[in-house]
Amino acid sequence: MASKNIVVATHRPWHKARFENWNPPQGYDKFLIQTQAELTKERLENLAPVYIFFPHWSWIIPRVIHEAFTCVMFHPGDVPFGRGGSPVQNLIVRGIYQTQLSAFQVVEELDAGPVYLKRPLDLTWGSAEEIFEKISQLTFEMIDETIRANPVPKPQEGEVVVWKRRKPEESCIPSGLTPRRLYDFIRMLDAEGYPRAFLACKGYRLEFYNAHLEDGQVTAKSTMTVSA
Fold first, then answer.
1. Do 97 and 196 belong together in one domain?
2. Per-residue pLDDT tens for 92-116?
3. pTM, 2 dp
4. How many domains does the chain have?
5. DSSP-assigned letter for residue 1
6. Which of 142, 133, 65 is nearest to 103 (CA)?
């Protein structure tokens, strides 16, 4: 019997590394798409995937694709609460540490599709990079579960709350933060591809990373550059 195909579309290094070491369920072959340019209807028609999984995909998925194939998005947040951009950062900055990783069908409205699976996700500690590694592990467990169980997605229920994607200038550390909030602010931006928390003073820019909170004190590494 010919194998069935599974496509994973992601451009983040933590997901790509896990994809390389992932063995899909027996009877399935895996294919990786890493860029918008690779995500074409023609290529997908040749692969004829059973599912296309989108962990941490930053671009809008064209209608011609999500209407022709079963596309599953992974999103940190207990949707419909927390739809939209920068979900990990928008949760942590509000002090929301217990949430869900949601897997839902892609539809025209952003993050509004029916849900296949949800699994608990703890954001209490760790840098954004460490959290994304945790999310990646959980994502591929959920991919396996979806392939094996083929669940029927159910409509989202509850209050709709939509986040806006954060802008680089919002990484400037605000005044008046408690130690816990300062720790959260630095760590939530500490991942490859994200603008680090920073302070600007007298022509210099200090960026902070590798934050730790102990006995009410925050320590972090920093780099200093001359502002342009």
1. no
2. 999 999 999 999 999 999 999 999 9
3. 0.94
4. 2
5. -
6. 142
